[in-house]
Amino acid sequence: MSEQATPVFQIQRVYLKDLSLEQPNSPAILLQQEQPNVDIQLGVEATPVAEGLFEVAVTATVHTKIDDKTLFLVEAKQAGIFEIRNVPEDQMGGVIGVACPQIIYPYLRGNVADVVTRAGFPPVHLAEINFQAMYEQQNAAAQADGTVQ
User: Which HAMAP family match (predicted)?
Assistant: First the structure.
């Protein structure tokens, strides 16, 4: 097998791309004793950067409310630059949609927990994610819509 055909998968860099925290109803809402409702949304996106280089980002939005008032809102995007070369086309989706997010996600979890704690709240620990199942679910939905990924 020639060196040209050897698959390459390397992490070039992992970084926090975006982070915001809002507490629009502080300090009054901090005096409430009710348990807040927590809504967590996750997303994965990938962008080609150069030949064989891809930026993969995992985003999390944590919206915590008491009744209809926001206690806090955290939006975070953790990203990584990956060198991916000589990977068969039918395997690229899995590498970008599963392997890369699995590497980035622990950093995102730590950053979200840290910013929530620094804001004066108990940490929010994002659950472990099965990116393989998430990727397969997105592909099944795309095929059902007729927009194959």
Answer: SecB
CA distance 149 to 135: 10
Residue 102 CB partners (closer than 8 Å, separation 6+)? 131
Q: How far is CA 22 from the centre of its chain?
A: 19
In terms of C-beta distances under 8 Å and separation of at least 24 residues, what long-range contacts does 123-131 make, across chains too?
124/38, 124/40, 124/62, 124/64, 124/74, 126/40, 126/42, 126/60, 126/62, 129/42, 129/101, 129/105, 131/44, 131/97, 131/98, 131/101, 131/102, 131/105
- CA of residue 26 relative to chain centroid, distance: 27
Q: What is the pLDDT of residues 111-147, one digit of tens each?
A: 999 999 999 998 899 999 999 998 888 888 878 877 6
- 9 conformational bin, left if phi > 0, alpha if psi -120 to 50, beta if neither: beta
pTM listed for this prediction: 0.86
Report the alpha-carbon distance of residue 62 to residue 78 in Å, rounded.
14
